[in-house]
Amino acid sequence: MMNAYVSDYSHMFAEFLSELQHWSETGAEPKTGDQDLRYYLDQEEKRLEKRGISVKLNIKPFGDIIQVSKYTDALGIDLFNNARYSQSLHYQSVEKTVIYERNHQEIFRKKDDYVVHLTIIEPSLHEHASIA
Asked: φ, ψ for residue 124 (rounded to 5)?
């Protein structure tokens, strides 16, 4: 039954996770993230830099990417009622390992499971009434 709710956007999810991991290696901001994420990553980078610490992320997804909007549609719930844009919520479980280093020496490592949530916004497929 859950197969009906598997996301059609797995490529976007994989790209986002790859860009997030790449940020920890190069400092390049994820192109697929919003301004809130970019602001957070900038602040995190400054905070770590002040302490002479670098961070590396290792993110391993597991399980299906679930598209919440497919589930709510099946229940008859309209989460996003917007004629101009189509929005969909997606989530996937990931194992995230964070490694903190100072002077190329590991000082702390933490491994946890998380649920990553993405909201994908795209132009609606509906015809729009125009104002003439």
From this structure: -70, 150
Which helix (H) or strand (E) segment is 12 a member of? helix 10-26
Q: Which residues contact 84 (CB under 8 A, 6 or more apart)?
A: 123, 124, 128
- Cβ(13)–Cβ(65) under 8 Å? yes
Paired tokens of 88: 């969909």
CB count, 10 Å around CB of 14? 13
Handedness of CA 65, 89, 12, 14 (dihedral sign): negative
Please name the residue that has the structure tokens 């597991």. Answer: 62
- Tell me the average confidence (pLDDT) per consecutive run of 10 residues in the chain, 132 residues long: 58 86 89 86 94 93 80 55 68 93 96 88 53 31
Write b or e for each residue in 34-46: b if 16 or more Cβ atoms lie within 10 A of its Cβ, otherwise e: eeeeeeebeeebe
The tokens 């490694």 sit on which residue? Answer: 99
Phi and psi at 49, nearest 5°, equal -60, -40
Q: With residue 37 as reference, give the H or E element that holds it.
A: helix 35-50
C-alpha distances out from residue 67 to 89, 91, 114, 119, 130, Å: 6, 7, 17, 10, 31
